[in-house]
Amino acid sequence: MPAFRTALQLMAFSVPAFATLWSYEGSKSQIPMYSEISTKIYDGALWRFETENQDVFQWTLRVAQDYSLDVWRASGDYVDVYTAGDSVIPKALLSVPHTISNLSTTVRTPSRNSYTNAIDRWNLTSLENTTYHAAYHPSWEIDEFMHTLAELYPDEVTVLRLGHTAMGREIYGLQISGDTKASKAKPGFLITGAQHAREWVAISTALYLSHALVSNSSESQSMRGLLDDFDFYVVPSPNPDGYDHTWETDRFWYKNRQVVDPVSPCVGIDTNRNWGYKWKPHSALGNLGKKKKKPVPDDPCSTWYPGHRAFEAPEVNNLANFVSTLNGAGGPHAKIKAFVDLRSYGQMLSTPYSFSCKRMPKDAEDQLEAALGSVQALKVKHGTIFKTGNLCSTLYRAPGNIVDWMYARAGIKYSYAAFLRDTGTYGFSLPAEWIRPVGEETGKMIEYLAKFIAKRQK
């Protein structure tokens, strides 16, 4: 593996002092070439239960949870459930109108046993001609992509080390800037990839956007012009432990891989329910339809387990620390002015709040105006239609959400969750040939949002 050195002088790059910057020494871009590939095939079915009203929705979801079914998505008027292996749908649910899509997902994991030049193999010098965005990639290829991008564009790209995961892996991010001398005065734009491990296209899209931000302005999908107005911070894989698990063991794993109980056979925290704004020891979903005065804390085996306390997950705590060093408690001097959390699936651009359907942000009008323009810009590229609205109304009530914390605690006025393609045909198994189209249309959304905010600040 290449040798690295740590650059200790950080102030010139306008990044927090705890973050570490990487640069290459010696032989560069030597990354594994994979001649051996392990293949796993996941055969299953995606069931969509159409729920005509909230009573049916809550009942359907409660039954699915009581039978420990794998709920992929619950969105008010439908509940998506994935079955594989010995999983069966209880007879009670079959009375709800439903459709079934058969899914066969193949995961081909490359083995690291020889080396080749990353630039030559993927042609990262060109966004249009690269082969990198034609496939999903395991963690080591994601890390090498980020370091190679920093090598190719040393004046624009800096690799950040944000801290370690529950299993000790490093969490990497990118700072992408234009004129570094002017960076301190520029607002920041933060983009995060999949907090939930199985949402692969969110990670791939974060990588595509990073590439587009540094690509030559002559290329048709280049976003380099945005660097005139913003410094971008991109964290493609904020849950690398969980993401690795989806490659190695369970393609549809959801949480991180943290040990949370000395006796429970289950591990993992839902990192998107572990943020410190309106955190609760139970998920709203876990108590749907239960007539009890006091909500019951979630079991560690629950898909939506929020942890024993807020910020218990180191992945969440590290990202919050990073944002806090840039924004403090918010206010006019906060660096980051825009935040987009990339997710899948559902084709929505959602605003705060997630913890309540009754509370509205004081900036709701501006947030929605920017969102409506952004989804229209996205639609122009490939015709993809996105919905807009606050998180609670477009999904369900969920405390401890990252978007709520970024808005209410970090003071990022324009905070959004972007649920990428599709609407349920493939769900989390979106084919790799869709990576580039999703990246292109998401780029148009980010571009509109950045220009909207820049114009408002002038």
From TrEMBL:
The keyword Signal applies. Inactive carboxypeptidase that may play a role in cell wall organization and biogenesis. PANTHER family: INACTIVE METALLOCARBOXYPEPTIDASE ECM14 (PTHR11705:SF147), PROTEASE FAMILY M14 CARBOXYPEPTIDASE A,B (PTHR11705). It is found in: Secreted. It comes from the Eukaryota. GO terms for biological process: proteolysis. Keywords: Carboxypeptidase, Disulfide bond, Hydrolase, Metal-binding, Metalloprotease, Protease, Secreted, Signal, Zinc. CDD domains: M14_CP_A-B_like. It holds the Pfam family Peptidase_M14. This is Inactive metallocarboxypeptidase ECM14. Its cofactor is Zn(2+). Residues 1-19 form the signal peptide. Belongs to the peptidase M14 family. Residues 135-453 form the Peptidase M14 domain. One of its GO terms (cellular component) is extracellular space. One of its GO terms (molecular function) is zinc ion binding.
